[in-house]
From TrEMBL:
EC number: 5.1.3.2
Cofactor(s) essential for the protein: NAD(+)
Gene Ontology molecular functions: UDP-glucose 4-epimerase activity
Pfam families found in the cross-reference section: Epimerase
Catalysis: reaction(s): UDP-alpha-D-glucose = UDP-alpha-D-galactose
Pathway assigned to this chain's UniProt record: Carbohydrate metabolism; galactose metabolism
Alphabetical UniProt keywords: Carbohydrate metabolism, Isomerase, NAD
Signal peptide coordinates: none
Protein name: UDP-glucose 4-epimerase
Keyword Electron transport on entry: no
Enzyme class: isomerase
Quaternary structure and interacting proteins, as annotated: Homodimer.
Length: 340
């Protein structure tokens, strides 16, 4: 048993990691300002500290109150589009919060740190699948801010010996297969929840962002990786940092699916049509992003257990159908979701 600090542990990926840590018997403290996170996503038995990472005094209090084997850092601004409207805010906040947290970890004697990073730092790569040696040319201020956070961690290792891993996620998707957690963003910008809600008649038809890309059906191809598999990667990587050096991993299934294939999958699983129209391209979207997960598999034994797109969509559908208004709507009686 060990104790871990999870920032952003009330958010989408963070909460699935908290659950996975708890299930294997670890103790978890969540630090989350609940701007995006949900109190209800933090399982019973997990301490929740509601605080902003910019508040150094509160961060220091957390490290003074508990001793941690490791830190998993999810709390961050994470919308690509927003980052192109407010780049300075993204660069400043994501870098400075990571640096504050790494500094507090070092001072407290904590030696391991896992950073939630992103495939967005690869920009528009030419070679697929994308391995860890691919050139880093972020296509957005969000991607750049995560690269800056990774660089800060390089320095924390070089100067203070803080061992870190950055996990560059491709498209996190799906929900806890037992239905305890799901995806609930405000605003929701991600394809799978938007397609499901459109099929359920809960929002406007989906807009497909461009069908003139150089892909077989003209729509963008992404690597959708199940959030439970992503959570498993964090645990394995954190364990490896006990004896291993600082490291960077790309985390995806290694399989690409187009926007149209996602729509077809949602229609298959939900048994309803996904009303949609074709719109213009979204600025900054590369045609194809698919991960090479070779290094992660080789070094940690990780493998995706929920790799199929239909399985990913099935878990996402189940959670959204049962939670018409996300976490704020847990008490909806059976059947009401369908009528909503
Ligand atoms: N997408 C779309 N319509 C939407 C939202 C997303 O066509 O309303 C497309 C988007 O262009 C991308 C893919 O779906 O090719 C996945 O987008 P998402 O925002 O879920 O994740 P991202 O790839 O931006 O991390």
């Amino acid at each position: 048993m060990a104790r871990f600090l999870v920032t952003g542990g009330a958010g989408y990926v963070g909460s699935h990691v908290v659950l996975a840590l708890q299930e294997r018997g670890d103790e978890v403290v969540v630090l989350d300002d609940l701007r995006q996170g949900h109190r209800a996503a933090v399982p019973p038995g997990v301490e929740l500290v509601v605080a902003d990472l910019a508040d150094r005094r509160r961060v220091d209090e957390v490290f003074a109150g508990w001793s941690f084997e490791g830190v998993l850092h999810f709390a961050a601004l994470s919308l690509v589009g927003e980052s192109m409207r407010e780049p300075m805010r993204y660069l400043a906040e994501n870098l400075s919060n990571t640096a504050t947290l790494a500094d507090a970890a070092v001072r407290s004697g904590c030696r391991r740190f896992v950073l939630s990073s992103t495939a967005a730092l690869f920009g528009h790569p030419e070679k697929m699948p994308i391995d860890e040696a691919a050139r880093i040319i972020p296509g957005s201020a969000y991607g750049e801010s995560k690269f800056m956070a990774e660089t800060a961690l390089d320095w924390a290792d070089r100067v203070h010996g803080l061992r870190s891993a950055a996990l560059r996620y491709f498209n996190a998707a799906g929900a806890d297969p037992k239905g305890r957690l799901g995806e609930d963003h405000t605003p929701e910008t991600h394809l799978i929840p938007l397609a499901i809600d459109a099929a359920l008649g809960r929002r406007d038809p989906l807009m497909v962002f461009g069908d003139d890309y150089p892909t077989p059906d003209g729509t963008c191809i992404r690597d959708y990786v199940h959030v439970t598999d992503l959570a498993d990667a964090h645990l394995r990587v954190m364990d490896r940092l006990k004896d291993g050096p600082s490291v960077r991993y790309n985390v995806g299934n290694g399989l690409g699916h187009s926007v149209k294939q996602v729509i077809e999958s949602v229609e298959r699983i939900g048994g309803r049509r996904v009303p949609h129209s074709i719109g213009p391209r979204r600025p900054g979207d590369p045609a194809i992003l698919v991960a090479s997960n070779e290094k992660l598999r080789r070094e940690t034994g990780w493998q995706p257990y929920h790799a199929g797109l239909d399985e990913i969509v099935r878990t996402a559908w189940a959670w959204r159908e049962a939670h018409p208004r996300g976490y704020d709507d847990r008490a909806v009686p059976e059947g009401a979701a369908r009528a909503a």
